[in-house]
What does this fold into?
Amino acid sequence: MSRCHMNEDDTFSATVTAYSKEMEAALGQRRKGMSQAWEDVERGWHELNQCRIDAGITKPFGSQEGMLRLNVGGSHLRFRRCVLDGKKEPSATWALGNLFESVWDDRLPRDSDGRIVLDKSPACVKDLIHSLIESSGAAPGSLPRGETLAPDEMAYLPHVARALGLSAYIPLQGMEVVGGTTILSHCEVGELTATLQGWCPGNPNTMQLLYRASRDDWSPYPFHASCGNNSPNTITLLRVGASASIVGGFSSVPWSPHAYGGDSVMSSLGAFIFMLKDSDMGGPNSFQPVKWSKRDNNGGYDVVVGASRGPFFGRTDLVVNFTYVPVTLQAQPYSYDVPSVPAFPNLNGQTITEIEVFQVNICNAIAGALMEERIALYQAEAELEHAHSKAAVSGRALAAVYGPEVARGAIDTVVELSVRGTRMTTLRSTLRACRESALAALFNEDKWPATDKDVDEQGRRLINCSPAVFQKVLDVLRMRKRAAWAASDRESAHVRVDAADRPAFDSFVNMFFPGFENFITDMVVPQGSARSGQCTS
It folds into this structure.
């Protein structure tokens, strides 16, 4: 039997409430103390730098040159400035690195605590900063790692990375293998196809199975029939020997023999051979995949195509001998820049236990005959960028991230929000991206200044909306605003909204964007839609 004692319940509730207030006060004091400690660290680095200048020392005392304090959509990030050192990308603007030069500190929007406001998706920026920290070798404690980026945010991670000049720091997710593979095991297919994706020019996103020897026959005819004229840009995978080593090559030309017969020596832009796995090398992590490019003077022997031949790279570098039973591998480096290491040549003469050939979907941006030339152009652009003055570079970065108006001196005010108790930070220009909307009118301070009932005790504007829903609306507005000045973002990522949140999302859009609902909904797809993963550059 259970009994309800009202007086005891009231006493318990009062005790819990009092304890919660004490805990909140203690946490507030702790946060204040930590903020003071961070300020002391920054002040120390400033004084140290001034001493260095006064003493005429041109080399910094250490690898750290102060801290960066960011407010990214309400999330607070701190990390060392050295994390951004040397991360020049082959692009017109290395936005994040040049943006935070001290010369621009007065131009950057800041919140009430003095943090620089970066109006981007907090989850995406945090993920990119982690990648920078890991690549810089900075102390892992610079920033708490947190959870893995959620799939719905991963869909527009490329959009945020492109805006900040950080596309190279998006972790590869691997390629979709259409038709499956028996050579790569389930547990390694993601990692190894990601490796191949990084090696292939054009960053392909799919591998389509064309030919499998155990299925289609171990002979030249089905190989050429499946991998002929309509199938350029192929990856060949070979499983070799009892140790199940995996080698292969990439060719940008189809495996189509001439009608008159005989062998044809072919030039193949971007061709390379590789070794993904060597099971003779101890444990599973003892061998790192390696790629070998063509030698400068290989006589044009990139690939050889013949009616009686299988996959054939170089003069004798990686050759499938269909004339032998069982089928064997010839691995004698000549045309490709394979070093004198035993792992690859030791496969020469061993039995091939499976062959798979895949067509890869090369992105149009650097496809076909421009593959190598485009890569060289990127490198030249990067060298040219180093020659520019930092002031000019920082100005472009300012325009790329905050827009041309801010770069020309306009003030984009910071708006701090309390969305049903959740703190969020954005810029007024984001909230007014759809100028004729009710939301834009709400944040037009000239006509509708905020009153006491519109803000909380900390002065944050109150928003009566689900935080999850409002965050999605902000993500759309941020991308819409950027598309107004960034031509590459006219077609951008799509935001996924969970089915459970969709009624509340639609209700908010109908209320605050009457007559302009498509401004928001055109960039929204249901959770789980294939379209939501697309990001057009």
About this structure: The CA atoms of residues 50 and 56 lie 10 Å apart. The chain has three domains: 63-171+371-411, 189-366, 413-533. The longest helix spans residues 6-54. The mean pLDDT is 77.
